[in-house]
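ok, trying the design again with the full structure, not the truncated one.
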């Protein structure tokens, strides 16, 4: 079983104390050896938005949230978060994973975003007094969406004239989308950024109601898709 760490999982691990971290790493080893083995209590959350998402026991108080792609020895487990028991189930029930068609990055969205983070539904307001300054991102919405930036984010991004506003916008975006916007702001051209981040042909990993992978890259290529926001 192949185990991959999502950026959100790495961040959550960093917030834990040493004793819990050791238990999490023990859980990771169990998942690598046998995810169906005893002690993990692997469960599909009730009412899960994405039926590939599972939770696994770390101890009586903490659970890991993960997603499974494929079956058997070629399957991949993407660890998404580690949270207290009830919070883990709340996060897991609203978590959804999609492959960005332009970048090939695996994007995590949740029904319960971190306060202050940019999401499709809630975008941070621009601060007053910024009218008249030049755009930090002098591009069109179409040019940014062509790089895989969502239309909602792209529409807001091209209006930004202040670095603090840009950082507020990118906070909470998938890491690769944040990097794309910041690289463009630093002076990289569209072609340079496209060469760094965009995969020309990537088949999204789809899923059926039973949680099985239906279409997408062959298992040997799945690791290339599971970049989880890394550039």
């Amino acid at each position: 079983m192949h185990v991959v760490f999502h950026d959100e999982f790495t961040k959550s691990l960093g917030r834990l104390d040493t004793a819990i971290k050791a238990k999490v790493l023990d859980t990771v080893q169990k998942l690598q050896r046998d995810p169906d083995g005893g002690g993990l209590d692997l469960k599909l959350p009730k009412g899960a938005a994405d039926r590939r998402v599972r939770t696994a026991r770390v101890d009586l108080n903490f659970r890991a949230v993960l997603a499974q792609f494929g079956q058997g020895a070629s399957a991949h487990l993407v660890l998404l978060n580690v949270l207290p028991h009830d919070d883990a189930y709340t996060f897991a029930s609203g978590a959804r994973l999609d492959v960005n068609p332009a970048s090939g990055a695996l994007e995590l969205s949740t029904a319960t975003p971190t306060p202050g983070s940019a999401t499709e539904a809630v975008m941070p307001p621009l601060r007053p007094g910024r009218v008249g300054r030049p755009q930090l991102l002098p591009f069109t919405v179409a040019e940014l969406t062509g790089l895989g930036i969502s239309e909602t984010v792209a529409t807001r991004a091209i209006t930004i004239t202040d670095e603090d506003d840009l950082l507020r916008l990118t906070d909470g975006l998938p890491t690769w989308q944040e990097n794309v916007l910041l690289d463009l702001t630093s002076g990289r051209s569209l072609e340079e950024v496209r060469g760094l981040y965009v995969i020309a042909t990537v088949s999204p990993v789809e899923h059926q109601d039973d949680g099985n992978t239906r279409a997408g890259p062959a298992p040997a290529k799945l690791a290339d898709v599971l970049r989880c926001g890394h550039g």
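Keeping the full-length input from now on. The CA atoms of residues 95 and 110 lie 4 Å apart.
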